[in-house]
TrEMBL record:
TM segment ranges: none
Pfam families membership: DctP
Protein's name in the database: TRAP transporter substrate-binding protein DctP
Record's keyword terms, sorted: Signal
Stretches assigned to coiled coil: none
GO biological process: transmembrane transport
């Protein structure tokens, strides 16, 4: 077998393709044209601050980082965003409101604040988003974010002294028990449940009879938390089929910022935010992907009985009725309900998606993996693994179709941003649950495999014999390969 010497991770290091111009002045000029701004961005470089209550490693980190890159690209390098991460660390209460009020005071030019936080600060236009059990699936949340309701939802932010720029998707929220699951409304009565400050979120927990606290997770006497798969933490048991809320993020600006900027500069912010929203709708982890990651840490997902689900929803209906006392909120709730009705009813997550999968066992040989698989690698997957080279980020993302055949592998890549005619191929060995992938004449990648009952392959304990490619390997093979077909006859 003749191996291809080309490694996709190394594409960012190749010589420029034919027709590429590398003259700095012309590149910058073309970047300005490519922004799509109706007005030029002139003058000295502008640095704006953006505050986040989260760390860069948390779920909204990739969206913020993408926004930063979009602003720099669309402004031709004349605008830059400096991010203040984790502004309100553990132990600081009302952390979302700290960010919101800081932006309103002008301490920060921009901020990313969950929509749930604004009702405490007098904003009513966003509270419809936290109507209990209204946006109760990942598909519904994405449909609402993509809809034309965004301007109406953001319009009320001026009451809090900020300007709403955009609305981004985030995580689905659930109830997590500490030590034991929270499976019925009766289990909330009189116990401490940790939840961020929000009038609408607290309204449901209060109606369930819980004591809403912001003490450290797992503090003495704490029974559980209202959280998400991504941040609930190890040892929390999720009630998977009870989804009271979706978390959405508002990107806001100090009210005075727009008047301080040139029209073209403000347009860069708005267009960069919109581009980030569109990308996040495609790349933000789905609810099922988040569930898989949660379960791989050893955590558990359980289901409430249909009767208990109905009991939760009955309590939620009482809270909804209170919200609908405000006519404007009632209209937005109805509009959101219309959008949600356009998407299929999601299948409830009642257990860990991969639970019951068996790791590969000794005696398996290369023919055990024969088949055709697909894997989608997002830019965020490589970024989270520590890859920073722009060429690698561009060239090694997309949909990859892999064929494994008796020790030989090959794949083809499809991506909107990159058209590849290359077909990568090589050989592999598989024994005792461990894959050895031979890439080119020098590189060897090894990994432990877990194989689902439907044939999906998951990689762990990845090692690349070339240390400089270890991060790229972790990002590239960090996504499951979904089996789509047997080999053709």
């Amino acid at each position: 077998m003749t191996y291809r010497a080309t490694r996709p991770y190394l594409r960012g290091m190749r010589l420029p393709r034919r027709g590429t111009v590398s003259l700095t002045g012309l590149t910058l000029a073309l970047a300005s044209v490519a922004t799509g701004c109706a007005e030029p961005v002139d003058g000295p470089s502008l640095v704006l601050s953006l505050a986040s209550p989260d760390a860069a490693t948390e779920p909204n980190g990739p969206a913020i980082n993408q926004f930063v890159r979009e602003v720099e690209r669309r402004s031709g390098g004349t605008m830059r965003i400096e991010v203040a991460w984790d502004v309100t660390p553990e132990g600081v209460e009302d952390w979302d409101q700290v960010i919101a009020e800081g932006v309103a005071r002008g301490d920060y030019d921009l901020g990313l604040v969950p929509s749930r936080a604004w009702d405490v600060l007098g904003v009513t236009s966003l509270q419809a988003l936290n109507t209990p059990f209204l946006i109760d699936s990942d598909e519904a949340m994405r449909a609402v974010v993509a809809s034309d309701l965004r301007p109406d939802l953001l319009a009320g932010l001026e009451v809090a002294g900020v300007t709403g720029i955009d609305l981004w998707p985030s995580e689905m929220r659930r109830f997590f028990g500490l030590g034991a699951p929270l499976l019925s409304p009766a289990e909330f009565r009189g116990v401490d449940i940790r939840s961020p400050t929000s009038r609408t979120v607290s309204g449901l927990l209060d109606a369930l009879g819980a004591n809403v606290v912001q003490t450290a997770r797992g503090a003495s006497g704490q029974r559980g938390l209202e959280s998400s798969f991504a941040i609930a933490g190890v040892g929390a048991v999720a009630t998977g089929n009870v989804v009271p809320f979706a978390k959405l993020e508002t990107l806001v600006a100090d009210d005075a910022l727009r008047s301080r900027l040139q029209p073209g500069q403000w347009r860069v912010l708005v267009e960069s935010a919109a581009a980030t929203r569109r990308e996040q709708l495609e790349s933000f982890p789905t609810d099922e992907e988040s569930a898989r990651s949660f379960c791989r840490k050893g955590d558990e997902i359980v289901a409430a009985t249909p009767g208990d689900v109905s009991a939760f929803e009955k309590v939620g209906q009482r809270v909804r009725s209170e919200l609908e006392r405000d006519p404007a909120t009632a209209r937005l709730i109805a509009a959101i309900e219309d959008v949600v009705a356009t998407v299929p009813t999601a299948t409830a997550i009642t257990k860990c998606p991969d639970r019951g999968s068996e790791p590969a066992v000794a005696g398996d040989d290369v023919r055990a993996l024969d088949g055709i698989y697909v894997a989608r690698v997002h830019r965020r997957d490589l970024l989270e693994a520590g890859v920073t080279d722009r060429g690698q980020l561009r060239d090694n993302t997309g949909l990859f179709t892999w064929t494994l055949d008796a020790g030989s592998w090959q794949y083809q890549q499809a991506a909107d941003h990159y058209r590849s005619t290359d077909e990568q191929y090589g050989q592999y060995a598989y024994e005792a649950g461990r894959l050895t992938l031979y890439w080119g004449s020098e590189e060897v990648i090894t990994a432990r495999l877990t194989i689902d009952r439907d044939g999906t392959i998951h990689f762990s304990d990845l090692h690349d014999n070339l240390p400089e490619l270890q991060k790229a390997t972790e990002g590239f093979f960090g996504q499951p390969w979904r089996r789509i077909a047997d080999l053709p006859d």
